[in-house]
Amino acid sequence: MHHQLYLGRVFNPLGEERVEYCADGGILVDQATGKVVTWGRGDDLIISGTEAAEKNGGSFQVNHAYKEMYLIPGLVDTHIHYPQANLLARPGYDLMEWLEKSIFPGEIRMRDPEYARTVATTLLGSMLEAGTTSALIYGVTYLEAMNVLCEEALVKGVRAYPGKMLMDQGAPPELLDASAGQGYEDAQKFIANWQGQGNVQPSIALRFALTSSEEQMRLTAKLLDEHPGLLFQTHLNENEREIAAVAAQFPRSTNYLNVYEYYGLHRSQSVYGHCVHMKDDEVRSMEAADAAVAYCPCSNLYLASGLFNWEQLAKLRVGFGSDVGAGYTYSVLENAKLALVLQKLRGYQVSPAKIFYHATLGGAKVLRNEANVGNFTTGKEADFIALDTSGDFALEAALDGATTSEEILLLLIMLHQRSHVKATLIAGEQRYAAVG
Ligand code: GUN
Ligand code: ZN
Questions:
Q1: In contact, 223 and 195? CB cutoff 8 Å
Q2: Fewer CB within 10 Å of terminal CB in the chain, N or C?
Q3: Can you give the pTM of this predicted structure?
Q4: Ligand 2 geometric centre to CA of 351 (Å)
């Protein structure tokens, strides 16, 4: 037994509107397993920890490094694009123009595994720097580049759910699977190689309806049948021009989601990115399937995709997605901040507790990993980040006037800056520490 107690101001999300806070708290971690033993008041845990160590002969250490900082669960990014890690804020007015002008040409560079390694390092390093500990990741069609990403994820410890991209039409030929059959074979190979390897858990990623043949969609449904435990990710109802193009390409479908339904891709495994323009019958079908939503506020703003209707999707599992590179920041908290204010424009008031929940435990539910991460329940993985507000005078002054935990949380979200992330720990191991 080697227990370490991390003292700090602990916020623990429990549900949509439920959050616990302890200003002089601590998280007790079993460093051998990387799991949470318990959390609570720091003084109480010092007494019980010392007693237990004396009785059982194990070691017990108190870590004061984050004592004046806020400790929150590691953030969950439910939608990010690996090949776009070096493609933030690229030109393009809306989705279709941006893809054609900037993204498809940029992603072709991933054919070079050496370049891919620099991109993987940027991606994972930037995620850790932003406090992200789990991420559902869209990949590229190239297997070598995908292997590079997984190798780097193992080194960095990030809980990565990467999907080899499936796309066989509607983009430059160099970016596509050689055929639907080849894409299927490569995805099988990728899954077989990486399933069960450390923190890497493969997912299945089909870019969107416009870049897959009917044969590819059918083969992808077969993949989902063969791997019912894996997540499936694709894009849905992001942009009006995209929706019109889908309607033209699939005239028999009643709506966008119906395309995925028709080919057998609409399941409880499915995580749909964006969902900005949803018809009521699509929402009902999402609820019936228990499918999940990746809400990408920064991306929706950058590409002028529209204002996400959270109220309409309130019954669904929803997580935040940075959607880098359409999203211009890796920070899940920046996305959370934007969601909080944008929802006001819709007349939908979301509390700081709800926003915090979706950035953490709610995101873990989208990844179907809430049994292991998302808060500090005993037995979960000790994934947490330390937010240091001490150098931020405006925030410190505002915090001085905050009297409730709800007010503190609102400030931590609204005045969040990536520089507040002082350390990122995964399974009790420090994976990022800010210099200075
Ligand atoms: N739809 C299809 N591909 C993409 C992509 O790379 N980014 C976004 N935001 N939407 C997409
Ligand atoms: Zn996306």
A1: no
A2: C
A3: 0.98
A4: 26
Instruction: Choose which residue among 77, 81, 93 to substitute to test ligand 1 binding: the one with the highest number of ligand atoms within 8 A of its C-beta.
Output: 81
pLDDT at 53 over 80: yes
Collapse the DSSP code of 168 into the 3-class scheme (helix H, G, I; strand E, B; otherwise coil) and give the result.
coil
Q: What is the pLDDT of residue 1?
A: 77
Q: Is the CB of 330 under 6 A from ligand 1?
A: no
Own/partner long-range contacts of 191-200 (Cβ < 8 Å, ≥24 apart): 191/223, 191/227, 191/230, 193/147, 193/150, 194/150, 194/162, 197/150, 197/154, 198/153, 198/154, 198/157, 199/153, 199/154, 199/157, 199/158, 199/159, 199/160, 199/426, 200/150, 200/153, 200/154, 200/160, 200/162
Q: What is the pLDDT of residue 56?
A: 86
Distance of CA 167 to the CA centre of its chain: 22
The per-residue pLDDT for range 253-288, each reduced to its tens digit, is 999 999 999 999 999 999 999 999 999 999 999 999
